[in-house]
């Protein structure tokens, strides 16, 4: 490192001139800095009268000396080291601050959830962890309640669900508690991850717009493409298989329960990262468009048009994934999300080719491969394109060995191939238009031909599934690489209760057949034997009867599933409850278990 040479005469003249103008010296040296403002060591700072020195003057002096050193170094080197150092320092500080803020936000949100649940358990009036409030109410199903062990009745009877907003008569609820309930309902993991990704990008977008971080301003297109790339990565099934495998292997059983619950929730809600990054890419594209329009004299008109089209396509892609559209118009969601996304990818390629080869000085295109491949945007685009193409490399047309329709409420399809624990399968008749995911049922201990097969248990609800029942196919399209989901996380917990209604049983069957022995099943359905057929009942017969709890609503009436679940959890000391039912039933059971202090998970709209 070069030594910094200082001129005392120059600095002293600057000091005299600065004093006449009523300001501090711009280039101070030790000779012209007042004695009361000179930097002292730590011992002097606490051991002498310098303690009374003004903190403002000390900081100002240190900053001026640092600026003097940087400017001298820049003048001697004749280069832009100062600008680079300044940009690097600001960028490093911003990244560090954002990373710290992200860590604190995640920790605060999760610890808030734990403390809120503990408080609810202590005061006896549980607050909701989602969009409904929970309250003390008697059990609605007395027959089911009478079957519960007497020692457990007092505990189970106090749990039920009531619509949000109801409170005990003549009881005044503090405003703070209302705020806490609202925050608790809003701050689920999906929204936390969405907010982190969005907040990170908003921070850098503001730094770029104010030119605080010149790198972000220069590489705004790279930020847009980078967000698109990472949003595709967290949706890539092979990448997510690796993430699931790593987290499950790392945190399996040994950490505290709340740590394992945190990572399970993270995996279940990782779609929040996908949504947050996609919205962030739209913001960066808008910023790119505004910047191009501002400097339109130096920009080719076609580039501006392409960026405008790209922004519109990303907006359509994001709007199609809105939960209401996705839930009530799933086919529309799939078509718009897929084809507008592919068109947007094509528009990005056109934009990158045009923008990389446009010479703003001559206002002409100079097409050269060297201009293209040396941009990081190009490599972001290559990775994104690969991530879009890769899932289609595993698509195969496979034979359906057998399709049985035991009733109007169940379809059982049989395929070749053993499927490991925790994996799910997608099938389709029109692979370009729609895909549907179902839980796979494979028996690891069966002998003979049953060893190398798997079943899909399906409820005929939508157009696709009803057509499977009315017109069973001989072949369907599937992906050889099976993706993983919530069932894959069961090995992180020592024991658990699996709750299913109707055909929701299909997602948990492989856990009972292949997984840990300390998982029990509660299955609620109507006329189980006739509705789901002999094949499903035969698979259930292979499981230890002590682990299977069946409730036939045709003969026994509808049980209080929440009370039964809590009673079974406390009886076997289960660590987790996993629920699959219709959306309202899943929310009811998950919220009720969480309010009782039990870790519970169920599929979400993004699953």
Mean pLDDT equals 76
The outline comes out as: elongated
Task: Give the N-to-C terminal Cα separation.
Answer: 56 Å
Tell me the major beta sheet: 8 strands, antiparallel
Number of β-strand runs? 17
Number of helices: 24
Number of domains: 5
What structural category do the secondary elements indicate? alpha+beta
Beta-strand fraction estimate: 5-15%
Radius of gyration equals 31 Å
Fraction of residues in helices? 40-55%
Uncertain segments? 1-63, 69-97, 110-171
Transmembrane segments: 89-112, 190-209, 221-246, 266-290, 302-327, 339-358, 378-395
Keywords: Membrane, Transmembrane, Transmembrane helix
Protein name: Integral membrane protein TmpA
Short characterization:
With 607 residues, this protein is an alpha+beta fold. The chain folds into five domains: 8-77, no CATH class; 103-186, no CATH class; 189-234 and 270-393, no CATH class; 394-484, Translation factors (Elongation Factor Tu (Ef-tu), domain 3), CATH 2.40.30.10; 487-601, Rossmann fold (3-Layer(aba) Sandwich).
